[in-house]
């Protein structure tokens, strides 16, 4: 689960530095051994050459005769011993010991890291070739990936039965093959051909299999597949001759991004929500001009005496639902303290199963989180008081401060913060009512990605250290506002830190009284 947060990944760099030192030690020991043997061979060669000058007179000398005999008996035995001496075992033992004390990633972590890469690729529509070159949105961030590296991503995807991405990465592995790659073209072709077949392109799969068979004619599986693909193709050809067409559909695609508004029930989009979410994450969506021109920034003191001296800087994001961003509402030293308190307690973030009420980990929420209580530190209390000053709402029934760190590809897919009718029974804090509002503090900048997006509002909030977003999840009637559906986009480059406070209804009856609106035709 290391890939879920960046702070844990830092420990892996420490592990790697220890391993590098160990490997260097091993090389040094090997070199010492070889150096000794080189010295010996030189001595032997010298003596041997001496003897060769005049063999009989050399051997007439009893000392020479003795030394030759010695070289070939006890000396040689020593040499053999040195040759068989296993200088590696100590270093292997070291690694075994390190496994007890240092942090090592597991196979599961590798799968997770590969899936994270794929998630980034999908969400941000990143091109495989440029990713493999170490480029992210045109910026060179890392070293290039080798053919083997791409093959490994493809293999991970293959094991997930994700043939679409297997094809993309195996093709890249082929493109990046060089003369000194340890990877064989035929190994890649085997995965590529089968995944291409799984993706429905039998003709291409057959061509690839034929190429594979040119390289390895006796390949049993490939021979079997070839016969199978040929038979399948024959069947398809027979069918299309009967039908008299080429079998390819021609469906027009509706590219418009319009969708039906409904504040009180789930939407019907005519573009999949997924698409809106991705475009929002890419920064490709903007709210309508009409809304944009009605949004302002201002200073507010909310009637709080202290804020008369240092008013809050508020930026309107949306009127309905009400969403605002406060600038400079968390100090750097507060951020440092909150991060420090959270780090040792980090656990993989969970979500509530809406049927059982149980907390469980889910692929759609990947991050590490920890909860901080007001009593633990004055900084946590000060933050809660600041939220009171910002929003006028009571913190009496609010949840503890949740601190979250997102690692490679860390994200939280579109969701509502409020509990729906079917979930409300499972809601642990039932006595305090539903989550009326959310405050989300950004405790870091993020180099690329990591926006908080509201797909239905075509709105993206970009993390900026020290700012906080605030929105009401419930309408004044107490009904959940479906327009507040939001997500944390995957982080591409950087480490994203947030802290959030979920504010509940109870105690806020007078600070945010019910409205007079009557919300018809909704269940909740
Ligand atoms: O991290 C974010 O940008 C949003 C997080 C979020 O929506 C949540 O934790 O409920
Ligand atoms: Fe949320």
UniProtKB/TrEMBL annotation:
It comes from the Eukaryota. InterPro entries: Oxoglu/Fe-dep_dioxygenase_dom, P4H_N, P4HA-like, Pro_4_hyd_alph, Pro_4_hyd_alph_FE2OG_OXY, TPR-like_helical_dom_sf, TPR_P4H. PROSITE patterns: FE2OG_OXY. Its cofactor is L-ascorbate. The keyword DNA-binding does not apply. Residues 20-54 form a coiled coil. GO terms for cellular component: endoplasmic reticulum lumen. Its main location: endoplasmic reticulum. It is an enzyme of class 1 (oxidoreductase). One of its GO terms (molecular function) is procollagen-proline 4-dioxygenase activity. Residues 397-505 form the Fe2OG dioxygenase domain. Keywords: Coiled coil, Dioxygenase, Endoplasmic reticulum, Glycoprotein, Iron, Metal-binding, Oxidoreductase, Signal, Vitamin C. It is found in: Endoplasmic reticulum lumen. Its EC number is 1.14.11.2. Belongs to the P4HA family. Catalyzes the post-translational formation of 4-hydroxyproline in -Xaa-Pro-Gly- sequences in collagens and other proteins. This is procollagen-proline 4-dioxygenase. It comes from Clunio marinus.
């Amino acid at each position: 689960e290391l890939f879920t947060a960046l702070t844990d990944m830092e420990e892996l760099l420490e592990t790697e530095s220890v391993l590098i030192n160990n490997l260097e030690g091993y090389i040094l020991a090997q070199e010492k051994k070889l150096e000794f043997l080189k010295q010996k061979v030189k001595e032997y060669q010298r003596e041997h050459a001496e003897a060769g000058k005049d063999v009989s007179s050399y051997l007439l000398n009893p000392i020479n005769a003795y030394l030759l005999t010695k070289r070939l008996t006890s000396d040689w035995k020593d040499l053999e011993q040195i040759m068989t001496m296993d200088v590696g075992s100590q270093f292997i033992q070291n690694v075994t010991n390190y496994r007890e004390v240092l942090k090592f990633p597991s196979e599961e972590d590798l799968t997770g890291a590969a899936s994270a890469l794929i998630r980034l690729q999908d969400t941000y529509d990143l091109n495989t070739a440029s990713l493999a070159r170490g480029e992210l949105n045109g910026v060179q961030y890392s070293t290039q990936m080798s053919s083997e590296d791409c093959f490994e991503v493809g293999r991970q995807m293959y094991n997930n039965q994700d043939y679409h991405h297997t094809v993309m990465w195996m093709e890249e592995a082929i493109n990046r093959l060089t003369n000194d790659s340890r990877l064989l073209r035929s190994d890649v072709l085997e995965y590529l051909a089968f995944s291409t077949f799984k993706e429905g392109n039998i003709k291409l799969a057959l061509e690839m299999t034929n190429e594979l068979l040119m390289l390895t004619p006796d390949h049993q599986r490939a021979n079997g597949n070839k016969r199978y693909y040929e038979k399948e193709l024959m069947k398809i050809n027979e069918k299309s001759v009967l039908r008299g067409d080429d079998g390819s559909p021609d469906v027009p695609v509706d590219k418009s991004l319009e969708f039906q508004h409904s504040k009180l029930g789930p939407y019907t989009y005519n573009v999949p929500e997924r698409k809106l979410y991705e475009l929002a994450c890419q920064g490709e969506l903007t709210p309508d001009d009409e809304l944009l021109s009605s949004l302002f920034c201002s200073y507010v003191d909310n009637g709080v005496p202290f804020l008369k001296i240092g008013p809050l800087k508020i930026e309107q994001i949306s009127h309905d639902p009400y969403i605002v961003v406060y600038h400079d509402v968390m100090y750097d030293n507060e951020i440092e303290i909150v991060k420090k308190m959270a780090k040792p307690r980090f656990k993989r973030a969970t979500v509530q199963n809406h049927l059982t009420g149980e907390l469980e980990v889910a692929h759609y929420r990947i991050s590490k989180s920890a909860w901080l209580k007001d009593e633990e530190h004055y900084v946590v209390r000060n933050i809660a008081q600041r939220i009171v000053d910002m929003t006028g709402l009571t913190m009496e029934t609010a949840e503890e401060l949740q601190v979250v760190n997102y690692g490679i590809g860390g994200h939280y897919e579109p969701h509502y913060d409020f509990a729906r009718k079917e979930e409300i029974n499972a809601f642990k804090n039932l006595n305090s009512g539903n989550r009326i509002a959310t405050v989300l503090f950004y405790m870091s900048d993020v180099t690329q990605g990591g926006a908080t997006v509201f797909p239905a509002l075509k709105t993206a909030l970009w993390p900026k250290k020290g700012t906080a977003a605030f929105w009401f999840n419930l309408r004044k009637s107490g009904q959940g506002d479906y327009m507040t559906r939001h997500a944390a986009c995957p982080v591409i480059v950087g480490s994203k830190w947030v802290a959030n406070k979920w504010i509940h209804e109870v105690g806020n009856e007078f600070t945010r009284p019910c409205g007079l609106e009557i919300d018809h035709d909704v269940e909740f």
